[in-house]
Amino acid sequence: MTKIITIDGPSGSGKGTVSRLLADKLSFQYLDSGALYRVLSIAATRRNVDTANKVELALIAEHMDVIFKTSAQGDFDILLEGENVTSDVRTETTGALASQLAAYSEVRDALMKRQRLFARGNGLVADGRDMGTVVFPAADLKIYLTASIDERAKRRHKELIEKGEDVSLRALAEQVKARDERDINREVSPLVAAEDAVVLDTSNMSALEVLDKVLHIIDFKRLV
Ligand code: DC
User: What is the distance in A from the centroid of ligand 1 to the CA of 37?
Assistant: First the structure.
């Protein structure tokens, strides 16, 4: 049986880094569900699809050709129709549009099928907003990561500066807040901790400390 570990939380909570490290450590599959919403927003922009056209967006979500692959250098690459879109995927503009399209139930249903296909082999670490509540409600372990808005904005800022994007910290904090509000208040699959999730505040923790804590829980539960 494929073991499933879900790691949900708002943007900048550290779920991406921790999930990747954990999947690597356990030799599990890794699902970056946010990347699917992000790739959809790139595909829709390239096709000039009206962002209100839910039917067309759902069709693209269902049929777009997306491949996640780890490069020889250990980088995580995302290909859309064969083209490497990794750096486009990570921009704030893409994230904001992804959050907007993610509010449509038609889009969520289409992406749900794709997400569930990642559950194969020994196990899966799935990161997102609704992994533990909607996509994998029977997961073996559910983690919900959170952190203060300031800390999350700082993390995002560092990440973007390293990538050569010039954004002010204040503007980022506003964007993080706006995205939180949209993700938390939407009607379908809002961002919320599953009732049976272990909630960790990562404000004062490094990614490695969070990983350590999660591994501890996995050990304690004799999950693997
Ligand atoms: O985790 P992320 O920042 O890459 O996600 C981008 C957006 O996609 C996020 O603001 C909301 C949406 N999303 C979602 O609604 N459900 C998920 N499981 C993952 C992401």
Answer: 6
* pLDDT, tens digit, 9 for 90 and up, residues 21-61: 999 999 999 999 999 999 999 999 999 999 999 999 999 99
pLDDT digit string, tens, across residues 122-150? 999 999 999 999 999 999 999 999 999 99
Q: Helices 149-162 and 169-185 meet at what angle, rounded to 10?
A: 120
Nearest C-alpha neighbor of 66 from the set 39, 48, 90: 39
Nearest protein CA to atom 5 of ligand 1, as residue = 34
Residues with CB under 6 A from ligand 1: 11, 33-34, 37-38, 95, 98-99, 102, 128-131, 179, 183
DSSP 8-state code for residue 3: E
Instruction: Give the domain ranges of the chain.
Output: 3-212
Q: Which CATH class is domain 3-212?
A: alpha beta
The predicted model scores a pTM of 0.94
